[in-house]
Amino acid sequence: MLKVENLRLVREGKEILKGVNFEIAQNEIHLVLGVNGSGKTTLAQAIMGIYPCDGRIIFEGKDITNLSVWERARMGITLAFQEPARFEGLLVKDYLMVSAKTKSMSKLEEIIKMVGLPRNILFQEVGENLSGGERKRIELASVLLMEPKLAMLDEPDSGIDMLSFRLISEVIKRMKGMGTSVMLITHSEEMIDIADRATILCSGKVVASGEREEIKKLFKYSPCPLKR
Question: CB of 151 within 8 A of CB of 175?
Fold first, then answer.
């Protein structure tokens, strides 16, 4: 589904991505693992088209390297940021309706239940009154409502309690069941158990990529083998 070839990205004179190569297959959960500062988020942003880069990004057989963010979104690619958006004064239902492919309250209620939130949260404001775990789940609901072909999730497991962690893990597996491929960005080795395959990124380079059990051994030993 997605193939990244020799991806290089320089920002403010610093090379962030250094010839990254990896692939995500159709209908798989693919973890991108690495310590903070390894280039994981920048990689997702480059795939989304937020930053220009050298190399090639192939999606469903088409070179999308020079396409805009909007064009990539129309093709079925989406990115959920690590810190969910906060829109003071905007109700959750209105926030979700913007991204929903099927714009109906019944669909919103179905998805909000799927992510483990009560129906009445739809009528609350997207703001400071929501916990970090609730905002993360609302962001996942937004992604589910888009019905994307490829969902890139930037550390959905960070800053949440164990209950939210388990629920979010289940939602990600359900995404796969609904036909969405997932690129899951994390520095947490616990998330590898829900993955099909994984790639370890270190200092902007891919140091390993393969099946879950193969990568699991390496990641448990050292999350960034190039750093000693």
Answer: yes
- pLDDT 10s digit of each residue in the chain, 228 long? 999 999 999 988 899 999 999 999 999 999 999 888 889 999 999 999 999 999 999 999 999 999 999 999 999 999 987 665 666 678 999 989 988 888 899 999 999 999 889 999 999 888 767 887 788 888 889 999 999 999 999 888 776 666 677 888 888 998 998 899 999 998 888 888 899 999 999 999 999 999 998 887 775 555 454 343
Lateral strand order in the sheet of 62-63: 14-24, 2-11, 54-59, 62-63
**Nearest-angstrom CA–CA distance, 119 and 93:** 10
CB 9 within 8 Å of CB 46: yes
Closest Cα partner for 17 from 201, 185, 228? Answer: 201
Between CA 73 and CA 146 the distance in angstroms is: 10
Nearest to residue 207, comparing CAs of 222, 185, 194? 222
Say which residues have a Cβ less than 8 Å from residue 227's Cβ, sequence separation at least 6.
35, 202, 203
Q: What residues does each domain of the chain span?
A: 1-76+148-227, 85-147
Instruction: Give the bridge partners for 51, in sequence order.
Output: none
Angle between helices 92-99 and 105-114 (to 10 degrees): 100
Q: Per CATH, which fold does 1-76+148-227 belong to?
A: Rossmann fold (3.40.50)
Strand 54-59 to 29-33 pairing = unpaired
